[in-house]
Write a sequence for this structure.
């Protein structure tokens, strides 16, 4: 049982070991955010749930068909949501591949 966010983060990274999975998360979260901003800006707040649908559709596709594992969001929804944004930040900074390599070495 995972008890701390630091433990969860290493687990999360190990569950996103393939670059395509990370790219799908990036695409889904980015598209979801664009939709969220559009819905708020146009007063179509009632479409807000589509933000989650789009974001998770891309991510879950990556887990089921690329990584072939269960999304961490099933068991740890809050930490997973936060970690998606942390992962995207590291991707934008060009540091996520190194983080994946660090966790891979740790688990070897």
């Amino acid at each position: 049982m995972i008890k701390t966010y630091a433990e969860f983060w290493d687990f999360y990274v190990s569950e996103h070991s393939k670059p395509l999975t990370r790219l799908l998360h990036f695409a889904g979260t980015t598209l979801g955010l664009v939709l969220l901003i559009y819905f708020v800006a146009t007063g179509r707040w009632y479409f807000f749930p589509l933000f989650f649908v789009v974001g998770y559709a891309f991510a879950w596709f990556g887990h089921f068909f690329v990584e072939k594992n269960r999304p961490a969001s099933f068991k740890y929804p809050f930490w997973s949501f936060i970690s998606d944004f942390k992962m995207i930040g590291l991707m934008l900074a060009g540091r996520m591949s190194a983080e994946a390599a660090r966790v891979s070495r740790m688990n070897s």
